[in-house]
């Protein structure tokens, strides 16, 4: 059942629309990345990550449809072009850089989903906690995988200094060895939630999917 009103949270709506389109850009990038690789196991793993991102796009769209959030045509075109460019560039920039920038991208994507949980909670909605948590953790797993592949590369320390991501730097505070459970997911990425993004006059009864039943 659809909710009786649309989400009264511009930052959350914007985040969902961006995530939906950006996931396709990631998929296109990984298609090119996989094709550029020579090692069969690395090809297989990158293709699996591509499949994970298609799944994420599907789940984000399901949430958007629940609240009648339209897909952004601008974002779709923008991220389509970005994804294609990145995918083709993997054939030109060697082995290290595609893995490095993929890891940095995934590192940033982790908090995107945990912040969505906090935004939904500000509206009194916890219906989507589990799927958003799973997607955030999956993005962290991708980050860790990419980092492991380049951990011993001589270029990593220099790139880490410039781009603030690498063996000693991450764009999120998720630790896969010591994970919080779903019910404590708000412990993650607190610094990524701007106070202005959480409305103070939201009504849980009006915004919850359960209210439409």
Please describe what this structure looks like:
There is one protein chain. This protein has a single domain, classed as Ferritin (Up-down Bundle), CATH 1.20.1260. Helix content is 62%, strand content 0%. It has helices at residues 10-36, 40-66, 73-89, 96-122, 129-150, 156-163, 204-207. Helix 1 (10-36) packs parallel to helix 3 and helix 1 packs antiparallel against helix 4 (96-122). The protein is globular and about 50 Å long. It starts with 9 loop residues before the first helix and ends in a 6-residue tail after the last helix.
Structural class: mainly alpha
Low-pLDDT sequence parts: 196-213
The biggest sheet, with number of strands, parallel, antiparallel or mixed sense and barrel status, is: none
CATH class: Mainly Alpha
Count of separate structural domains: 1
Q: What's the tally of helices? A: 7
Query: Which overall shape is indicated by the principal axes computed on the Cα atoms?
Result: globular
How far apart are the termini? 6 Å
CATH architecture: Up-down Bundle
**Helix percentage:** 55-70%
Strand residue percentage: under 5%
Give me the Rg, rounded. Answer: 18 Å
Mean pLDDT: 90
For this entry, what is the oligomeric state of its chains?
single chain
Tally the beta strands.
0
Instruction: Give the topology string: H per helix, E per strand.
Output: HHHHHHH
């Amino acid at each position: 059942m659809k909710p009786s009103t649309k989400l009264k949270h511009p930052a959350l709506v914007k985040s969902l629309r961006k995530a939906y389109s950006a996931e396709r850009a990631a998929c296109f990038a990984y298609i090119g990345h996989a094709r550029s690789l020579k090692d069969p196991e690395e090809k297989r793993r990158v293709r699996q990550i591509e499949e994970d991102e298609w799944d994420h796009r599907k789940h984000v769209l399901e949430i958007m449809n629940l609240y009648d959030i339209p897909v952004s045509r601008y974002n779709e075109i923008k991220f389509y072009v970005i994804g294609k460019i990145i995918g083709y560039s993997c054939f030109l920039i060697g082995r290290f850089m595609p893995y490095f920038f993929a890891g940095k991208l995934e590192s940033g994507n982790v908090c995107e989903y945990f912040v969505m949980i906090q935004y939904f909670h500000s509206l009194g909605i916890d219906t989507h906690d589990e799927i958003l948590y799973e997607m955030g953790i999956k993005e962290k797993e991708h980050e860790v995988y990419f980092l492991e592949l380049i951990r011993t590369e001589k270029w990593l320390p220099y790139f880490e200094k410039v781009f603030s991501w690498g063996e000693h730097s991450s764009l999120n505070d998720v630790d896969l060895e010591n994970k919080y459970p779903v019910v404590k997911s708000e412990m993650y990425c607190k610094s990524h939630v701007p106070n202005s993004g959480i409305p103070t006059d939201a009504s849980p009864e009006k915004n919850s999917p359960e209210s439409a039943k």
